[in-house]
Amino acid sequence: MSPLWRDRIQIFFAPDRVDLVRVHRGIKPEPPVRLSVECEHKPGAPAWAAPLEQLDQMSGTGGGHGAEVSITISNCFVRYVVLAAQQNIANPAELHVLADFHTREVYGEQAADWVTSVSAWDPSGGGVCAAMERALLEGLEEVVTRRKMRLKYVEPYLAGAFDHWHKRFDDRRAWFALVESGRLCLASLENGAWKRISNQRILQNVEDELLAALDQEVMLFAGRKENVETVYLFAPEHPELVLPEDCGWRVALLSTESLPAPAHYPSAAITLERLS
What we know:
CATH topology of the domain at 3-76 and 134-158: Nucleotidyltransferase, domain 5
Structural class: alpha/beta
Helix content: 10-25%
Low-confidence stretches: none
Shape: globular
Strand content: 25-35%
Number of strands: 13
Strand order of the largest sheet: 3-2-1-4-8
Largest sheet: 5 strands, mixed
Radius of gyration: 19 Å
Oligomer: single chain
């Protein structure tokens, strides 16, 4: 089958949900089909076990044979390390050695069981390393292969959202907040280069924790703060999220009519189903 004729399946994979959008191709293409399913954690199992099982069930419905699959992984399953500029990196192999070294330096020996990937690399601006459990990646690959589909890529949520919206950011300095269920990922960039990424749990009130994280990042790592800073925000599961008017931060919502979120990204407007 020609790649141009293969159906396309896009998946958002998180601890508590799996969102799947299937785009049919062919002579008579059909409207996209979306399925969003709630997941319940299994005691004693990895946090990704339940959504992986749900993904397997969802892939078995509707005949995914031959489809091209792309998967966006929740930040709950990803750990990030900003790689500073290195003029002496000669080839991709050296870059991955550097990424693995810094990942272990930050996260310890647990990183030995992770697989890493590196963003587009700029010797003068650095890049970002993303790491996830090898067992999770192998589980995703196994499901896709067994269901006779083709895996195009697996990407971290932060990377996908950044690629989709980064042209809207201020080139001089930007704060990018990606909020999902139980997780806040906050990135800062300066002159187009990554400066820092924090990826933390949301324990109580999301507005309070977002504001506290922003103020802390500025105080500890930015060195200075404008009277009013802009934070570029995507928080689809928290549509009511706002910050106080006099807090020193202006919120710029990323998802707009002219540039909406990718169809498979989570949304509070979608009713989650539960597969038995």
